[in-house]
Amino acid sequence: MDKIERLRIFCLVADKQSFAQVAQKMSLPRSTITYAIQSLEKEYEVLLFYRTTRKVSLTHEGSLFYDEAMRLITQLKELNRFKYQIRHQQGKISIGLPKRMATQILIPHLSEFYQDYPQVKVLLNGNDDFSNLIEQQLDCVVRVGQVQDEYLLQRSMGNIRLVTLVAPTYIQQHGKPKDLQQMEQHFAVDYHVARNYAEYSHLEFDGQRIKVPYQLLVENTEAYLQAGLAGLGIIQIPAFDAQYYIQSGQLIEIFQEIAPIFLPVNILLNDRKYRPQYFQAFIDWLENLLKQQFSSLSIESR
């Protein structure tokens, strides 16, 4: 008999004020009930009950012990409820990922996941800042670009192409850049999450990093995209962020003849042995979703 079972017996005896009634209720010999109480008294060196031939009542120390035992049993019930939730696919998933990936890809398709797991809550941290899996108590994060974190598991979602874009209004005012040697005559929109000031912005290509003047610095992807649409400079952004605007002609891709950069996309996870089945299903579903989206936009590279 483990300690939790002995504590349950103790609480029942305290409630019913009878060893015999508890033995009958639990279909156990009275000696087993007596042993459970005596073993607790011996372990904790305290007298729990006053015993007479007619009545059993708690001592003062027994009353204090009863309060603590009931609190412990209640907590155990909560843990069992947690096990029930896991078994019945109830729970929550907290995920961090870039804002526009959340709004353009995850949110529009999330109802597909809920069809199979309607009782799972998704806590979405859609932020352009660097999401810290441990400090922000997230279950997983999606990161675009190289990852150097030896303490986290990485699961590849594929690679996305970085596209270089300008608005028609920019071309009307400044002309269309024809080659990289002309870039000092043009303007980019600079983008830094922490607003790190630098004299120039930079455009990245395969094996090349080009210095470009800028007039505007922004600190989130949405502002960066809107600045490009407003004709305030050249922008360079993952293709899924701008696919709609490219197709509608609001942004024009330039330097298509130059080899672009492909950025890896990874899901990062804690090295946790026991994961709820619904969480593993979510990761599998998200991987398939991202790969389908990248493939359908012709922006994935193997």
Automatic annotation (TrEMBL):
Pfam families: HTH_1 (PF00126), LysR_substrate (PF03466). GO terms for molecular function: DNA-binding transcription factor activity; sequence-specific DNA binding. Residues 1-59 form the HTH lysR-type domain. Keywords: DNA-binding, Transcription, Transcription regulation. PROSITE patterns: HTH_LYSR. GO terms for biological process: DNA-templated transcription. InterPro entries: LysR-type_TF_proteobact-type, LysR_HTH_N, LysR_subst-bd, WH-like_DNA-bd_sf, WH_DNA-bd_sf. The keyword rRNA-binding does not apply. Belongs to the LysR transcriptional regulatory family. This is LysR family transcriptional regulator.
